[in-house]
Specification:
The complex is a heterodimer of chains A (110) and B (124).
Chain A: E1 9-12, E2 18-23, E3 35-39, E4 46-49, E5 63-68, E6 71-76, E7 85-93, E8 98-101, E9 105-109
Parallel strand pairs in A: 1-9
Antiparallel strand pairs in A: 2-6, 3-4, 3-7, 5-6, 7-8, 7-9
Chain B: E1 3-6, E2 10-12, E3 18-25, E4 34-39, E5 45-51, E6 58-60, E7 68-73, E8 78-83, E9 92-99, E10 111-114, E11 118-122
Parallel strand pairs in B: 2-11
Antiparallel strand pairs in B: 1-3, 3-8, 4-5, 4-9, 5-6, 7-8, 9-10, 9-11
Classes of the chains: A mainly beta (110), B mainly beta (124).
């Protein structure tokens, strides 16, 4: 069971928006910045959002991140078929003294 | 461009050890921490540990203490992880990843560039 809780699945149609949540605690999300990764089947994860809401160069502005208290969210607007992937949140946990990942959310574009 | 290239797939028997390499290019190897993450089949991501290639400093996730080693060779810009006493549930894809920020800022930044992954099969 993951320290960070994500919904196992999410879905939307092309052009729609979807939000993926990441719930943690005061020792992780509540006190450190959250990063988001996406992973296509059979490939390595790629950084999507860092420091809660920053996009690396090359990531479209359709992707945005936010954090409030012990929860973080990834929002994707204007869904495209290529967005179909697994999405993971990650954050440093001060109590566990370790990086922790959410269990992952499988996004389906219908 | 910045690249992390890992060694090829491995098949090991229970109790054996596996060593995976991660050769970096396109940036200063000693300028960024390297993290190791694994992913069991059909499962999520699990952090294993980090190494500071600049001074060899390491930190392990507690569950791997005692059978997990990380090293680096600055002469060939390569980081290594070695997991010993392999069990069936160590079967996974093992990834190395670069920490985005400079090494002086510590290992707590995002993992911005990942290796392609190395599949380790553990089977008798």
């Amino acid at each position: 069971q993951s320290v960070l809780t994500q919904p196992p699945s999410a879905a939307g149609t092309p052009g729609q928006g979807v939000t993926i949540s990441c719930s943690g605690s005061s020792s992780n999300v509540g006190s450190n910045t959250v990063n988001w990764y996406h992973q296509l089947p059979g490939t390595a994860p790629k950084l999507l959002i860092y420091n809660n809401n920053q996009r690396p160069s090359g990531v479209p502005d359709r992707f945005s991140g936010s954090k409030s208290g012990t929860s973080a969210s990834l929002a994707i607007r204007g869904l495209q078929s290529e967005d179909e992937a697994d999405y993971y949140c990650a954050v440093w946990d001060d109590s566990l003294d370790a990086w922790v990942f959410g269990g992952g959310t499988k996004l389906t574009v219908l | 461009q910045v690249q992390l290239v890992q060694s090829g797939a491995e098949v090991k028997t229970p109790g054996a050890s596996v060593k995976v390499s991660c050769r970096v290019s396109g940036y200063s190897f000693t300028g960024h921490y390297i993290q190791w993450v694994r992913q069991a089949p059909g499962q999520g991501l699990e952090w294993m540990g980090w190494i500071n290639p600049n001074n060899g400093g390491i930190k392990f996730a507690q569950k791997f203490q005692g059978r997990f080693t990380m090293t680096s060779d600055t002469s060939i810009n390569t980081a290594y992880m070695e997991l010993s006493s392999l069990k069936s549930d160590d079967a996974a894809v093992y990834f190395c990843a670069r920490v985005r920020g400079p090494v002086v800022a510590g290992p707590f930044d995002a993992f911005d560039i990942w290796g392609q992954g190395t599949e380790v099969t553990v089977s008798s």
